[in-house]
Amino acid sequence: MFGQTLYVQWKWNRDFLAFYTAVGFAAPLLILWIALPHLGLTSARELVSVGRVVGITSAVIAVVAGLTVAWHGYGIDDRVGHIYALSLPITRSRALGIRAGAAALILTLPALGVWVGASLAASQVDLPTTLHSYSGSLASRALLAAWLAHACMFALRYSAGRRAQLVLATLVICIGVLGFATEAVPSARGVIMRAGDFVISNPGPFGVLFGRWTLIDV
Amino acid sequence: MSSPRTLIAAIALAAATAVVSPLTAQSVRPNTDSLLDRIRVLDSAVIVRGRSVDSIRRSLVRPVPPIAVRRGALEVRTVAAVESRVRVAVDSVAGLIERRGGPELAARVALHAPMVLPDSSRAMFGMVRVLALVSDTARRSAPIARRPIPATATASQIADGLASMVEQFALQGVDSALAAWVMVGRVPLRAASATEAGNTYIELATTASAALRRCRDGDAPSCLDVLGIDSLPGTRLERWYAPDDYRALLGIVAPAREDSVAVTAWLKCRDDRDAAACVTAATALPNNRIPPPLSPAARVMFLHEVLTAGGPAAYGRLVNASGSVRTRLEHASREPLDTTVRRWRDRIERARPDRMRLQPGFVIASLGWTGAFLGLAVVRRRSWA
Amino acid sequence: MTHAISIDGLAYRAGRHFAIRDLRMRVPNGSVYGFLGPNGSGKTTTIRLLLGMLPPADGTITVLGHDVPSGAHHALARIGYVPERLHLYPMLTVDETLRYHASFYARWDVTEAERLRCAFDLRAEQRVGRLSKGEAGKLMMLLALAVRPELLVLDEPTDGLDPVVRRDVLAAVLEYVSTHGATVLVSSHLVHEQERVCDWIGVMDGGRLVAEMPMHAFRSGIKRLRISGAPLLAAATPFGILARRTSAGREEEWVVRDWRDDMTSWFATSDAALREVVDLDLEESFVETLRAAREAGGRAA
Questions:
Q1: Does the pLDDT of residue B191 top 80, yes or no?
Q2: Rounded distance between C-alpha atoms, residue B193 and residue B351, angstroms
């Protein structure tokens, strides 16, 4: 059951996955391998800056891959009105669990692409002794980010259906209201700021998306 | 001392009160010496009166907090609402003064009477409550800026604010040579935080200065040079930057606009990465415009090492010594500066930040949230369609 | 008699203009139950409710002994379902679809699946999205039969298919039913097709089941009677009157159900005189049943 679901998810998403994997592999190479000699970036600070560009590019690729697989994966059933999925002899929770597991597996491909591309690119650059490449950490963070992005979109698509837009709109309005309340209700500012900090830093829900995304660091 | 206008006004005031003052009972000597003596006497009276007037004036504008919290040389005035937190903070900071500054620092701190009192700060709509840390109750315009912190600040945060203030007290009245070398306007009684030390490590690791690279590799004279303690022979450019570093240097400093040749070379260096143009532009920079390769934060870390090596009396020896900065630092630390440099370098090396490693807690939190979001998809009473 | 499907007091609302109210339905074990009704009457909705695809607002549903929707996945493991439209993943080939489908069913018969694939002339490497309507219908039937179901639920299985394909599909169903004794619930608006294969009939209209009886009773029990001298209010009759219409002169036309031939004797004791008994075919019976149900619903409103 899991194997067949994995195959179906792969076949449905393989075009996107191939694209993201290729981009994840090529981006570090293009940025480091070609840009550095061409632009003559050699100082340690420039190398760290370029490494940060590679890191942020990898983050974007990972998040977009996660969002796409979740969005597109839902579409395979949406196109046929969910009748097939509903008619199979399996509970909803198990079916969704299998799908999420299959998606988690196929999302390792873009992260693998990042890892291989980043490792190859870093190996071609003369790094000073004080700088190191972190292709493994970068790829691991990319994988976690892809999974998180997938889970968020998966929840939106499968839990609310047509009300996903309402949920999203409510979230956006809440964020706007909170931001306004931060100034309008000064006594609540501390709480709101702390809540905001928690959301975007470890161990908050989106901590993996923010923070240090770089291939080259000290 | 009082300004001329204040002096004239004060003399008039003193004259009005001369009837009840024993000082004013003295008869005026007709000659010049006696007139000068008279002015000196009146000036002293003006100073006393001025303080009284200032107190009266300030008490009309803002009352001095009624509660005095004192420990050792540190006295802080506050109000009942924050007294308990201030007491804890004062205990902490007083201990810091004793451990790190000794009697010399205590004497300087005793000249001040800082306040911690509730205040308000402007926000978009209305005001937000804060705690104001003011450096002095006795001066209307304090040389150290008023510092607001959140009204809900803990004792630790208040102690942090008071400690910053004390560090600035420590540099007040110090000679300009030492103050200029310190650069940041405070004496580092507290150790640098992990973040600050880590930033210094990153600075050394990614430096675009040949001298700093030599320092990082163990060359003590280069370290002393970039710290501004000693100077190697040559111009700043020759001492601190190699030709490979010129392009990075010219990214943060440009030649004078009037020097068209240098400006053209600067543009060519920046845009075309022409090495020869970089040399031309860099050598055209005046010596005093070449920036030091090391930030003040690193210098402060070094000073902290000096004070740590010399014990509580190190501060007193530092501010009271005469001679070059090097001499004074060695006198304070009671050890060769090379030893201090080595220790400072080791401390920076140990502060290397590990920013890229994925901690197990981080991974678990991320996976946990991923599972929580997936769980939301399962919790649904209605069907998929 | 035990029932493969048992529904009591079922209620469901979809939007503002359609509702199923107080639906009661029994599909006997081993029967071929024809689910008749015009378009939009609620047949497909009822099927989706009993398969657990939609949550009922009220009522109880039991399918093969399992409560639905709580135990729907247990029941679905023993059900072969053919929906009215192609519901399979278009990018998979026929072979991939068979393997995917088989992974969910412990009862999947690989040999039978292959036999049916050859019998239906479906190429293994052909993509589902490129199948013709007939081929898609055959593939859906193949998937339903290859799981060796105890209950077949067919929602308009031959709709839009050419006569040859329709014959092939129905033949496969009848062959399976005759060899395995499975229960079949087949929904359709093609009355003549239902007449040939079904032994029970349920007529759905406007979200209500207006008639449910054995096929022979439906076919033979509904008659049109030509009556003269009929009283305004008829006394209690042994047969049900679906409709009374005035025809030429003082004659009336009665459409009745549950008619038996010996019921002509009742007219001897009444003021009315029976002139003629007209047999109705299934389609006419179906139309009269619907008409009567709508008229009764209008009077109630």
A1: yes
A2: 10
Whether the model pTM is above 0.90 = no
- Given the candidates 1.20.1250.20, 3.40.50.300, 3.30.450.20, 3.90.45.10, the CATH classification of the domain at C3-215 is 3.40.50.300
Write out pLDDT tens, residues C134-164: 999 999 999 999 999 999 999 988 888 888 8
Q: How are beta strands C32-36 and C200-205 bridged, if at all?
A: parallel
pLDDT band at B61 (very low <50, low <70, confident <90, very high): low
User: Can you give the pLDDT at residue B315?
Assistant: 94
| A162 inside 8 A of chain C by CB | no
Q: Residue B29's pLDDT band (boundaries 50, 70, 90)? A: very low
Query: Rounded distance, CA C98 to CA C140, Å?
Result: 10
* Structural domain boundaries, residue A116: 2-161+208-217
Token readout for A75 is: 């579409």
Listed in sequence order, the residues at least 6 apart from B244 whose beta carbon sits closer than 8 Å to its beta carbon are A42, B210
Where would I find the beta strands (DSSP E) of chain A? 132-133, 216-217
CA B160, CA B147: separation in Å to the nearest integer? 11
Kindly list the distances between the CA atom of residue A207 and the CA atoms of A149, A197, A199, A201, B367, in Å, as whole numbers in the listed order.
12, 9, 7, 4, 11
Region B122-148: what's the mean pLDDT?
76
C-beta atoms surrounding A144 within 10 Å: 24
B-contacting residues of A 141-170, CB under 8 Å?
141, 144, 147-148, 150-152, 154-155, 157-159, 161
According to DSSP, the residues that pair with B67 across neighbouring strands are B78
Give CA–CA dist C43/C35, Å, rounded.
Answer: 7
Average pLDDT, chain C: 88
C53 close to B (CB below 8 A): yes
- Taking phi over 0 as left and psi of -120 to 50 as alpha, with beta for the rest, B199 belongs to alpha
Asked whether the predicted pLDDT for residue B383 surpasses 70, the reply is: no
A203 interfaces chain C, CB cutoff of 8 Å: no
Distance from CA of B382 to the nearest CA of C (A): 7
The conformation of residue C93, written as its DSSP 8-state character, comes to B
Q: How far is A200 from chain B (nearest CA, A)?
A: 12
A102 within a domain of the structure (yes/no): yes
For domain C217-300, give the fold. Answer: Alpha-Beta Plaits (3.30.70)
CATH fold match for the domains C3-215 and C217-300: no
Residue C43 near residue C205, CB atoms below 8 Å: no
Give how many domains chain A has, as a whole number. Answer: 1
pLDDT at B20: 46
pLDDT of residue A162: 55
Tokens of B9: 């006004």
Query: Cβ contact (<8 Å) for A184 and B366?
Result: no
The encoded tokens of residue B102 equal 């000794």
Alpha carbons C54 and C62: distance in angstroms, whole number: 14
Question: Is A130 touching C (CB cutoff 8 A)?
Answer: no
- Asked if C55 reaches chain B (Cβ–Cβ under 8 Å), the answer is yes
pLDDT band at residue B56 using 50, 70 and 90 as cut-offs:
low
Q: Measured on CA atoms in the order B140, B142, B147, B153, is the torsion positive or negative?
A: negative
Count of beta carbons in the 10 Å neighbourhood of residue B74: 26
- Tell me the C-alpha distance between B35 and C160, whole Å: 125
Query: ipTM exceeding 0.85?
Result: yes
Q: What are phi and psi of C203, to 5 degrees?
A: -110, 125
Q: How far is CA C46 from the centre of its chain?
A: 10
When pLDDT is cut at 50, 70 and 90, the band that residue C280 belongs to is confident
From the list B369, C40, C272, C58, the residue with the least C-alpha distance to A203 is: B369
Residues in chain A within 8 Å Cβ distance of C104: 1, 88-90
Is C87 within 8 Å of A83 when comparing Cβ atoms?
Answer: yes
Distances (CA, A) of B173 to B108, B111, B176, B280: 9, 11, 8, 43
**From CA C122, how far away is CA C141, in angstroms rounded?**
12
